[in-house]
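Record 1 of the preview.
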Amino acid sequence: MQRWAIALVQVLGLAVWFSVSAVVPSLRADWGISSASAVWLTGAVQLGFVAGALCSTALNLPDRLRPHLLLAASAALAALCTFVLAWSVDGMVWALPLRFLTGVFLAGVYPVGIKLMASWSGQAGRGRALGVFIGALTLGSTLPHLIDGLASLPWRTVLEAAAAVGLLGAVVAVAVVRPGPYLSAAGAVRNAGYAVRMFRERGPRLANFGYFGHMWELYALWTWIPSFLLATPAAARFSVSTEIVVFATMGIAGFLGCLLGGWGADRYGRSPAAVAALIISGACCVLSPVVFTAGPVILAAFCAIWGAAVIADSGVFSTALSETADPRFVGTALTAQTALGFALTVVSIQLVPLLVGLTGWRFAFLLLIPGPVLGAFAMRALGASTATTQPKEPA
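->
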């Protein structure tokens, strides 16, 4: 019950993350902004997330406060920022600060949710549990595309709907979610230095490096896959809107990929599961220029495979870190991991349109290849650690 409640909060609470990204074409028309300016509507959220995660790490908030209350408050404040943007903002001057603040508060939703999910999962089943959790994140992040694709709604209405969904997530968090027995309870001593010290330990270091490679690819793909699809020759021949294709291939397929990745992590080990997903998603980066000219069926199937593989290993990195980090500071370690990973996403998200300006959309995702390659090397090295490849229940 608790695991599914935590997953539901992620689906609902993270609906505001890409809410503005889903309506960028309407915003560009209404506000008269360029594509280079519009990309910062996503970049501001990523930077805000990094700032919020670093602050949370420095103060050890996930380990010192009641995590379900921190989760509820963060989801509510992120929803409030989105409501304000929908109701009263008419340009980038106020949109960017509000999107930044949204990211700050989301840093109290995602990493804290990981800790809560891990607190209800012994090591033998933690991979599957976090697979469900990351799958929920995937559905929540792509939910605005579904809202926008089901009906031709004004962009303000789409944002209001996403904010209302996020607020519902906060209500579920405070009413239902509670921390579990498997991790240290709130009240840990303050130790901001652990975010740096964990890189001296082989297990956390390699789990983090694998995650960084994964993040280099993930959010750039999620941000730009709608533009990539619209630029393909098959775009006009899809039987549904591009937004629905994105939700189906990145959201639904991504959710299924997370379940498969979590199962594989528990069945075959953390390292083999992550390496397999990274190899598949890296191969998709390589093949993307070839598939660019394919028909709609092949293109959608390819995107579904990519959408499943690119997120399937996300829970594996969190699982590996939660098992190798100091148990007193698991929340701090997970928050630091996500802070650094999301800082990388700002770079890759910004570089993709620069490459597009030189080569066009057909070759845009070749830029993402180094991420899964380096991530696979790191996770293969982590495979030498018996503690992560053969999980055991804590004593």
